[in-house]
Amino acid sequence: MENKRDSDNFLTSRQAAHFLNISLSTLKKFIYSGRIKTLKTPGGHHRIRKDDLFKMIDAGAPPVPSDALKDKTLLGIFKGLVNLLEKRQKFCRGHANSVAKISLKIAQKLKFSSEQMERLHLASLLHDIGMLSIDESILNKETKLNNKEYSIIKTHPLLGEEVVKSLRQFKRLSIIIRQHHERYDGAGYPDGLKKDAICPEAKVISLAEAFACMTARDSYRKPLSEKEAIGEIKRNAARQFDPQMVEIFLKIYKNER
Which residues contact 27 (CB under 8 A, 6 or more apart)? Predict the structure, then answer.
């Protein structure tokens, strides 16, 4: 009999296939080709370590699906919108994928449930979708935004919420997208929420996005080094970011060096 620790750390073949959004037969091909390592139970069933699946995601495997997202056509449309957004924003190439990768690393250490991981991954890809409604002259301005322009930029979480809330399959993502610019100290937008009033997924995306933006090389600003960006994250613990998530983030990057 499998104990709780096994179920927390391992998935069955069927669960793993669902997690990677691939068919069971494709997963088995990965197993037999050695791309996915497994452990076998006494009954001969495969068990796959969750950490190995996250490594596949980091390496560019298919995205983690949401349980409600069975409509691949609809999901494809949203991926197309993300690509369109990044083409409109000339300084944001690859931004959504960078935020998603960092978010998943943090959430894994926070022991998010599979459902939370699924929701987080898609929300992190779609977090800036509201920017599609904002004029390119503002999105791509290379000098400091004036007050009016900045107030327009600050509407994008609400615009993004409206986009995803209008579709039943994506409705659960809307609160995450609305809250991803809230701050731990209450100085964020659009609602000035603080601490535990902000959902955990939005807190993760907030931190991940800040780091991705500070270190982005495709930018009109000179990027910070990872060391400099990490210093900024540390300085803003318990101000902009949840201190627990900052602590986990710092451990992740220390272990990766």
Answer: 13, 16, 17, 20, 36
